[in-house]
Amino acid sequence: MLFLNIDEFESKDKIYVNKNVYSPLIKAHSHKFFEIIYIYNGTGKHVINGVSHDAARGSLFFLNYNVEHYFESASSSFSLLNCAFLPSAIDESLSYTENASDLLKLPMFEIYKKEKIDLSVSVNIHGLYKEFEDILFAMNDEYTEKNIGYQSILR
Questions:
Q1: E strand residue ranges, the chain
Q2: 131 — phi, psi (to 5°)?
Q3: What is the pTM of this model?
């Protein structure tokens, strides 16, 4: 099942940011864009390519293209923030990439080239949640308000 396809992005943005409460109506799905999912309230399970991961405040998931995922066993307060984006939102040279590792080849990520970071699979990052939360909530505000220059801020 394909959920929120490329056509649903505003053509000028190539990025979508949204805070929402979990809905059991959203079944297993995949998509043709990258997605960052941050859990900011409640508890549940995030099933990614058939593997179940605990999900609670501070859980951050980075999903590559075509990764099947869904949530289950979520509390009634289970809330998340989605940041879905096309690679070209970061840099036009990435228009045809489907591998998140290609993002790290950009000059803006030069500092990480010595690190052995693999974004070709989904990851769950714990710790430092407050910093991620502040950034992602600010991104949500920028996306919602759409003030002049918001696309550059989101990038």
A1: 15-21, 34-41, 43-48, 51-56, 60-63, 69-72, 79-85, 123-125
A2: -65, -45
A3: 0.77
Q: How far apart are the first and last CA of the chain?
A: 28
For residue range 55-78, list pLDDT tens digits in order: 888 888 888 888 899 999 889 999
Q: pLDDT, tens digit, for every residue of 124-152?
A: 455 667 787 888 999 999 999 999 988 88
Residue 32's contacts (CB-CB under 8 Å, 6 or more residues apart) are 2, 5, 6, 65, 66, 98
Q: Which residue has the tokens 């879905």?
A: 84
Using alpha carbons, list the distances in angstroms from residue 33 to 43, 72, 78, 85. Answer: 25, 22, 24, 6
Rg over alpha carbons for the chain, rounded to the nearest Å, is: 15
